[in-house]
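Give me structure tokens for this 267-residue protein.
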Amino acid sequence: MQNPANANKIAPDPARILRLLSYNIQIGISTRHYRQYLTHSWKHLLHHPQRFTNLDQIAMLMSDYDLVGVQEADAGSLRSNFINITEYLAARGGFAYWEDQTNRRIGRIARHSLGMLSHYRPTGVTEHKLPGMVPGRGAMAVRYGDGDESLVVLIVHLALSRRGRLSQMDYLSDLINDYRHVVMMGDLNCCSDSPEIELLLNKTLMSEPLHGMNTFPSWRPKRNIDHILVTPTVLVERAEVLSCSVSDHLPLAMEIIVPEGVELRTT
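Here you go.
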């Protein structure tokens, strides 16, 4: 979907275009119907060979993007055959840089994680534990460049309860206001017209460039609960939902123009 506001603009410098992807991969579980949340529930606890066939397909899709935010990865446990899924995707997708953040551990069975894959070298990655009555939600702050002119990309996965999400959005708003150039991407578990998104927009300068980009459920998307939001200094060229149903979410892609002061480095 092309952003109509950019239709008559001069083409930007290709070197300053950053291709973003946000994807809740559901640890490589393919879901085609609500009933499979029950019949395939064992896949959230035990390893199954099809998982890595699905992850190979996901890695191929991700390889076309410069920076990928991953939700519902696993840092290496029984269900992933003790393989770090973010590291696996980075290797298969040809990414030079990757980081992960484990937010919830269930013994040796599961290590619920966020992931970051990048063709550019971050100058810093900071972990944040988000507030909530049930612990286990987090945010990764990935920084490119230095000082006030750095670009900060937040990768998040918010709570299932509205009360939890409101508290987390309040926390994230304070974090966002510490920086000038910010992108926030992830599974927010709420739609564009929700009180949670309203709280974020009211407390920060962020905006959601395009609305109504439904990503869930992947087999019949009716809800836009996956989002990429930006501060005014980050210009958006285009955004789209991709047709890739190797999860219960669809991936969300966006092309942005990096602000002039931000330095992107490959080494």
